Each structure stands twice: as C-alpha cells, then as structure tokens.
Amino acid sequence: MGTIRYILYFICTFSVGLVFSQEEEIIPWSSERKLAWTDFKGKPFTTAWAAATTASGISYEFSTSGTIAAPQLTISVVTYFYPQKSWYRPELCDSIILGHEQLHFDISELYARKLQERLAETKFTENIKSEIKAIATQINRELGQFQNRYDHETNFSRDLQKQRFWNKMIAEALVNGY
Question: Record's InterPro entries (predicted)?
C-alpha cells in the first residue's frame, strides 16, 4: 500500500497546521540535548509581548503492507524543534526562560509518546489513514490544552515555585511514563 507521511506541526503559540519541508532546519528531541538560545533563529514579532516562542511539533509516519484484511502497520513518531520559527528577545531572556521554553519542547515529546502508545493500542480497520489522523488530531488538541495550562499555571515562567513543580513533573513523566 506504500508509505504515507504526515507531519503534524504544533507551534507553542498554539497555531496548528500540517507542514512538511525537507529544507527546513529541525532538531529532533533528545534527552541528551537541551535547547540553547543559539537554536532560536527566528525573528521576534515586534508586536508580541512574549520574551520567547518555541516552535515544536510531532511528526508521524506510517507504512502499511500485507492485505486490507490483515495489514501490517509500521508507525514512527518523532518530536521536532523548528529553529527558524522559534525566537527570543535577548534583552528579556535568561536561563529561567530558556528552561521554560525547553519544557514546552519536552511536553511535545511527552505527547508524542502518548500518540505512539495510543496508535500501538489501536485496532485499525480498512480506514487506517483517517483513523491515524483522527488520533493524531486528538492528541494534538490535548497537547495544546496542556501547553496552555503550563503557561498559565507558571505565569509564563514568572511563578518560580510553579515552574519548579512543572519541571519536576515533566521530567518524571519523561523518565517513568505519564
């Protein structure tokens, strides 16, 4: 049946779209690599009140083989950071804000894992493509709500006690599963 590739792209300002560009610079999520301000290469919005914006997204790819009655499905889910769409204002930023932005990327990874798990648990019908898209759309919606909650509860990193709480909660979820 061939390979079908879909990229779900979620900008942490909560714009949702489907995007794919082989020329676009991307940084895959890794527990070994943390973001640095040099990764934020986009131009800041002059009207934006924010000190920084992280653009991260969940990419999924699947291929099928076998028959319609007994398909063999292979699914890959990856989290990416998009440097050209991420920006910061150096005069407003410090290590606390960088940590806040890193957590947005980490939260995207957490939801990529949720997507991978949900897809692995699903018994698909002949409508694999639309079923995968529906699951990915639902996970992306949940991700957006969770990102909003994170920003509001931490007051965009200004509430240091809440920020520490979220840092610990997400770190534990990434290590132990959510």
Answer: DUF922 (IPR010321)
Q: What is the pLDDT of residues 54-80, one digit of tens each?
A: 999 999 999 988 887 777 899 999 999
Is this structure's pTM higher than 0.70?
yes
Catalogue the long-range contacts made by 137-141 (C-beta closer than 8 Å, 24 or more residues apart).
137/8, 139/58, 139/111, 139/114, 139/115, 140/8, 140/10, 140/16, 140/58, 140/111
Contact 163, 154 (CB under 8 A): yes
Which residues are CB-neighbours of 53 under 8 A, at least 6 positions away? 11, 12, 13, 42, 45, 85, 86, 87, 88, 101
